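for the record, two folds in this file. i put them one after another cuz i was lazy. first one right below, seq on top, structure tokens after. the second one comes after a little note so u can tell where it starts
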Amino acid sequence: MARKTEFTPMRKALQSGKITPEDLNSLREALFFDIMGCLVRMQSKCRACGLEPEEVCLSFDHPNETKRKHYASVSLRIG
């Protein structure tokens, strides 16, 4: 049985001309640097409390560090 392919909202917006690939790349870059800024601020707050970021499970995954990941993420494990 053939699998139905559904387009993501991003792909639909690209195909309809609402955004261009250049706009999308600019947005991705801006968001990446916002996430990095957030991570740096959180690391500073951890160190101000006398803890290393790793001790409170703060981590950052760059999209190019792992296979098949096209996103950056900052995570904080609680509990």
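(here's the note) second protein begins now
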Amino acid sequence: MKEFFGFGGYQRIPEGYFSWQHLTFVSSLMVIMVLCAVLFGLKNKNKDEKAKTRVLIVSAILIDSAEIFKLIIVCVRSQDPLAWLYDLPLFLCSIQLIAIPLAAFTKGRIKNAALDFVFVFGLLGAVMGTYFAGQNYGCYPVLSFDNVVSGYTHSISGFASLYIAFSRMASMKKRNIWVTFTILFGFCGAALIANKLLDYNYMFLRGGDGTPYDIVYRFVNGNQILYPACVIGLFLVYIVAFYFVFYLCTKKKKQP
């Protein structure tokens, strides 16, 4: 248990980024994630909003409780009560720690906007935070506390996104795209400030850190103005592309 939680540092040599152990572990999580989303989504598709929301309430409790437990372990392990400052929900995927509870516990336009945000970014965060998390799987053993909790929380984000799709909870109203932009810009601004104050790399706005963002970082030669601008620009392009594809796929044929 001491080794699993990393007290005193991990003694095992990490299996490595894209090792068969890494791919097997995250693929198992993805299979479970998709199966649960399809099962619960189709089961609740024709039920009322209250019944559909119960699944999101459970998801919100599970993801946030796991994150709080992780912060406690991180602080105890490092013997630093301020270690949580380096685990703030200021990565693209960790925004779901706030967005899923908003989708579960609020009403009206805020709820609809939160549902759309989780729908748009939840699955992307799940894939990026498991298969392409080189900063984790290149540093820690696959079956370690850091990677297990990370895989667990990212899988819940992906589950929530797919569940919203299969249960038909996403409104994807055009007016809500601006709310999605606002949420994203707000977190990017907070990440930039935190990076400056803490000398950290929230939202990967200072470097790729072993993720696919390294491609952008190398493309702009590490320029600290162009690089974050390109990363944020990619977020915006993704939102527009997602909405565009969604409307193409759901557009009803005009009656003759």
